Amino acid sequence: MSEIISKIPANEAIYYLIVQRDSNGAVYTPVDALRVLDHKSNAPIFSFWEPMVGEGASGGYMVSASAMGKMATDLIASYQQDTLPSINTDSLFENVFDDREIMEYGISKNNLPANSRILFPQKGYLEHHLNKIIMASIGIILGLMLIAGGLYHRVKNREQQLQKAKVNAERANDAKSNFLATMSHELRTLVNAILGITSVLKDSPELTPETSERMGLVHRSAATFTNMLNEILGLNKIQSGELELAPEVFNIAQLCRDSVALFTPRAQAKGLSLNKEQINCDQWVMADPLRLRQIITNLLGNAIKFTEQGTIT
Amino acid sequence: MHRSMGGMTIDEQLKFLGKKLEGRQIDYIVTDVSSTQRALDAQPDFLPFAKRIFFSQDSIGTSDIVEISKDRSLIRVAQRYQQSIDTMLNVHNPNKVHVFGDRNSKFGAERATLFQQAVA
Questions:
Q1: CATH superfamily of this structure's domain A245-313
Q2: Residues 1 to 60 of B: which have CB under 8 A from any A CB?
Q3: Would the CB atoms of B70 and A20 count as touching at under 8 Å?
Q4: DSSP string, A171-219
Q5: Which end of chain B is more exposed for a tag (fewer CB within 10 A), N or C?
Q6: Highest mean pLDDT: which range of A15-29, A56-70, A197-211
Q7: ipTM for the predicted complex
């Protein structure tokens, strides 16, 4: 019997009439025989008697054990009332199915008769796996929290590193500014002494023309050096944000004219001419005249320096 | 007479129960298999004051039989194999149906014959 059963595929079915003795003479109880069938079978087993449901049968239209019990109860009640009941044997049949077997064989519940009684009802997929879903969700949340914690730690470390680098950069910049300010001050003190002495000596009548010319060269070099120091200090102040402007109302045309006059000898010495025709209006402005004069003189100086011939306008 | 669980015959089981329940008041005996019904009918002295209610799905006949009295009621239910098979075909829609029965016992042979008649 076992060999035959195991070869029955799932798309076929077994209908179980009660077996009490097989072809070899082996004796079974009906339930034991059904259990053997169910153990070996790949196909669902249907039957006609409710006690088989729960022992391996998927179910079917059958004699209902519970209906028999109810009818027996009604009979006893009638006996006690000293009456005889009417019996309707139709009520003893019922569609009964084992939900475990139905699920195992993939039978759609839509195929079951509408008034079926379901034994051993199983949970739905979501309900059946609810614990696993909750545990998986908790695992995912914990994982995300760990990742978020790690990221936060890394961002915090990076932020601290950047803050430290910023502080170091500011300290280095302060050190540079202090160094430049100190060095410029010391150098300018020395150069001012050279400027003062050469200013007197270069015009001294006691010097020969050649020596006087050389003394004038020293004086001009010292003056250029002073200008360079001032430019370095000004640049340093701009970089460190310490440059302060002193705005006032003044005549910008006059400032331009003075600047041009200052550079006229240098231009003439190089064979260049400065065109002053555009500086013919008296325009009063609010600005820092010292810084503006620096700008104009720098422009003029560069213009003369990099112009080989012609006119500077 | 077929054997049931424990290897005892129905007669042996009734004898065992008779001793076990001796001296106790039993008002009703309810059975749901024909073999027990037949055995009890053959032993009227077994719990003689208990009223008997028998449900029988035996292989005798294809019509329902209802006998009711104050001391003994028998509801003999004829199996509805054709309806049972139809339900199976609607529920599972199998390519083939294998019927497992028993022709090696008198009871099984009678049931198998009735089944064949019902679905023929």
A1: Histidine kinase-like ATPase, C-terminal domain (3.30.565.10)
A2: 2-5, 28, 30, 32, 51, 53, 55, 57
A3: no
A4: HHHHHHHHHHHHHHHHHHHHHHHHHHHHHHHTT-TTS-HHHHHHHHHHH
A5: C
A6: A56-70
A7: 0.85
